[in-house]
């Protein structure tokens, strides 16, 4: 009877150890398979999706730029009020000034064909 108990305990221990080893290897294999699946999805679905979105945005921007007309700059007196000059550059342009997007506010950039009253307004506003 004692020998039967020892044998059953030895078999039970070996089966528990084998079960733990099998479940651990199954979990490890599952993790590798999941990582491989997500890696494939990233390269096959996500990156082409981002590329298609970038292409779509580029084409829409080209279409918009083709018919976009820049409105005429009007030098309103309440704009560009400076109580103190900026410490960089000529003191009149902001730190993130972009001459292609922002108006330069200098007399060289203002249109000279508007007439004498517009040039007088431009001189008074600056």
Automatic annotation (TrEMBL):
One of its GO terms (molecular function) is oxidoreductase activity. It is found in: Mitochondrion inner membrane. Keywords: Membrane, Mitochondrion, Mitochondrion inner membrane, Oxidoreductase, Transit peptide, Transmembrane, Transmembrane helix. Pathway: Energy metabolism; oxidative phosphorylation. The chain crosses the membrane at residues 40-59. Belongs to the cytochrome c oxidase subunit 6A family. The keyword Transit peptide applies. GO terms for cellular component: mitochondrial inner membrane. PANTHER family: CYTOCHROME C OXIDASE POLYPEPTIDE VIA (PTHR11504), CYTOCHROME C OXIDASE SUBUNIT (PTHR11504:SF0). Coiled coil: none annotated. The lineage of its organism: Eukaryota, Metazoa, Chordata, Craniata, Vertebrata. GO terms for biological process: mitochondrial electron transport, cytochrome c to oxygen. This is Cytochrome c oxidase subunit. InterPro entries: Cyt_c_oxidase_su6a, Cyt_c_oxidase_su6a_CS, Cyt_c_oxidase_su6a_sf.
């Amino acid at each position: 009877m004692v020998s039967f108990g020892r044998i059953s305990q030895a078999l039970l221990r070996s089966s528990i150890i084998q079960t733990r080893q099998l479940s651990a290897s199954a979990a490890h294999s599952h993790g590798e398979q999941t990582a491989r699946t997500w890696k494939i999805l990233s390269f096959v679905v996500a990156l082409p999706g981002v590329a298609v979105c970038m292409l779509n945005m580029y084409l829409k921007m080209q279409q918009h730029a083709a018919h976009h007309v820049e409105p005429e700059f009007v030098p309103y007196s309440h704009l560009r009020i400076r109580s103190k000059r900026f410490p960089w550059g000529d003191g009149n342009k902001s730190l993130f000034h972009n001459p292609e997007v922002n108006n330069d506010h200098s007399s060289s950039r203002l249109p000279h064909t508007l007439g004498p009253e517009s040039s007088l307004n431009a001189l008074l506003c600056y």
